[in-house]
DNA sequence: CATGAATGAGCATTCATTCAT
DNA sequence: TATGAATGAATGCTCATTCAT
């Protein structure tokens, strides 16, 4: 009888809107991104937007949530690896790949502008914590395997890897000359220097 | 009497408004900062605000402009120094000091949200360029003095210092445990590792 | 099978929706009652709602129409009575009973808010006219039977009964202390005073 | 220096907007009255509207507040009178006058539709209470002066006067034939019958 | 018949900016 | 010079209604 909702279609549509929102957020910042612009980008009516998301803010939160899930999925995928240092290298390579995604840096800046909202601040902190946890796990394993320095706690070393990876992303966004292709090796070297002390 | 415009008073008032705007921008982000809130913070009427600034954006640009001037003034002040490596250390210490200024991180995030505006993007790039130029100057001198590695161009080394300093600022803003007091020495060590290769 | 429309089932379903709408109108007013809320109350989908009613307004009109029919049915039911004054007393008792139906007062207020709509105004006037006609009929008969005053026309006396009955309903809705139980006798006395002059 | 706000002008403007809102509320009901329509009626921009009132609801509340004040002022004005029954007659005459103000009935209906809002319900109850208090005061005095029946408490008699006056207003709004001019004497007679028992 | 996803017109409200005093 | 009342364009969001399944 009733037309059963196709959960697959629903999920796909939702992701489509999220993708459009990511684009517009990255281009214009959170407040600069009007819901009308997101709808235009997604090719939907404004009513449809609010059919899938309660508020404009909730799309932002959904994007951040997706980021956490991605990090957690990555953590699970890496779990079986046996060489901690190789995994850390893999994580650096992923950060390099991220820095070539043009929307990412814009999105990070866009989100920064909404930090006033407690919910957003919380979600950002959770994103940050998930990445830190992943790094810390493998840093600790590398330490136990005697592959890297042990004079700094895994927590601090993980934070310092975030300094390097975050700083790299920022610089790549600010300076067109500073690209993953040109500076990738230097990033790997910098991480290496950090981990070896 | 005294109908003549007192340029000194005018400049002081302007700076007062800029200071108030900086506070409010840092607290609420650029778009979250209403001109009304800035006026309240500055203790002036809205008419007065627009007496001193054409638009809300122009205060933001004035702040960024001030940042450039500050960097250029710093460049002039350091000019007489003779030990390039010591100057680079001094610049790192200043970055550490900056990371303890609570309004700074907020302001940086706030500005990120307006990057969509070409004028703002240009001003930010100019700020960035001024800092890069200052670093590059002393990196080059340190290289000529044989104090640091020369396998990377002064431009690239300056950029990598920005990676470290920018990444540090970002981390300090994101993580309450990550403070200048606790991680300052490690930052100096990281810069040292970078410069020595 | 059974693809033939069952008019009985159709009518029952319609009445079910009307009942749900009456509840929601009474609770939230006409404009405050979203079709979604009515559908939830009725346990149907929004599509089904518009299967049975062209527009939201048309449910309201259907309710008012039902009121007229009820009044007309009542008129037919009372037709066989022989004591006009007793019938008028019966009508007063029915008004008293109405004032205890919690949804009624809310609904009356809800409808008032839509009086701007000519169709609604017309339907309300028709409701009013039906009640007035019923009262007028028995007032006239009571006059002819010499049971009540004749110095006022049946029309005017019927209107004055509406003043009392309507005012009573309004007061019962506005004041929790003013109930049919406590003030019923006084209402009967007031009507009596009115009819006797 | 500063342009001091002229409180008189402010108050006048506020009242002007209130008057326009009263008109539009009466014509279209509360939710039917768009702020745009109120602004058009008042000849102001939408910004000005929200300069004087926080929300659309707050104009409604201001109108109700004004009604309470009017009733209280009336109570003060009547205080010096010595003939309680004459004062009650005066109050009836005022109700008759009210029933000729075409906007009043529409406004009453309009407000009814918003009763869902607790603030509005509270304000309406306060309006009602102020009117009831005024009536009760003079009913009690008339009782003490032996001018009217004493078998009902002043509270109940006051409520019954509200039944008559409210019912009259309602009827006058519903039926074009039922006017203050034609039915005024009958209203006075009805009140008389009520008060004498 | 029954459904609920999709739609977009319409609304209350915000806020940068102007201008008369 | 300093003010704040007045403005209206722009925005996020609601909800009655349609229609493909």
Could you provide a short overview of the structure?
4 copies of one chain form a homotetramer. Chain A has 197 residues and is mainly alpha-helical.
Walkthrough of the structure:
4 copies of one chain form a homotetramer. The first copy, chain A, has 197 residues and is an all-alpha fold. In chain A, 77% of the residues lie in helices and 0% in strands. The first copy, chain A, has helices spanning 7-28, 35-42, 46-52, 56-78, 84-98, 102-112, 118-144, 154-174, 180-196. The radius of gyration of chain A is 19 Å and the shape is elongated. Chain A binds chain B through residues 27-32, 106, 108-110, 112-116, 124-125, 128, 152, 155-156, 159-160, 162-168, 170-171, 174-175, 177-178, 183, 186, 190, 193-194, and chain B through 27-32, 106, 108-110, 112-116, 124-125, 128, 132, 152, 155-156, 159-160, 162-168, 170-171, 174-175, 177-178, 183, 186, 190, 193-194. The structure holds a DNA duplex (21 and 21 nucleotides).
């Amino acid at each position: 009888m009733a037309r059963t909702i196709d959960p697959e279609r629903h999920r796909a549509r939702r992701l489509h809107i999220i993708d459009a929102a990511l684009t517009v957020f990255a281009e214009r910042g959170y407040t600069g991104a009007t819901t009308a612009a997101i709808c235009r980008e997604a090719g939907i009516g404004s009513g449809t937007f609010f059919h899938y998301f309660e508020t404009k803010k909730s799309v932002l939160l959904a994007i951040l949530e997706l980021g956490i899930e991605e990090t957690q999925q990555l953590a699970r995928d890496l779990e079986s690896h046996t060489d901690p240092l190789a995994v850390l290298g893999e994580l650096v390579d992923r950060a390099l790949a991220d820095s070539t995604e043009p929307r990412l840096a814009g999105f990070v800046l866009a989100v920064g502008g909404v930090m006033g909202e407690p919910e957003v601040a919380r979600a950002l902190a959770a994103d940050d914590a998930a990445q830190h946890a992943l790094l810390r796990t493998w840093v600790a394993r590398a330490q136990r395997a005697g592959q890297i320095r042990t004079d700094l706690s895994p927590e601090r070393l993980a934070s310092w890897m975030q300094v390097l990876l975050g700083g790299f992303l920022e610089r790549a966004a600010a300076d067109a000359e500073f690209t993953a292709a040109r500076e990738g090796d230097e990033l790997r070297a910098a991480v290496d220097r950090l981990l070896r002390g």
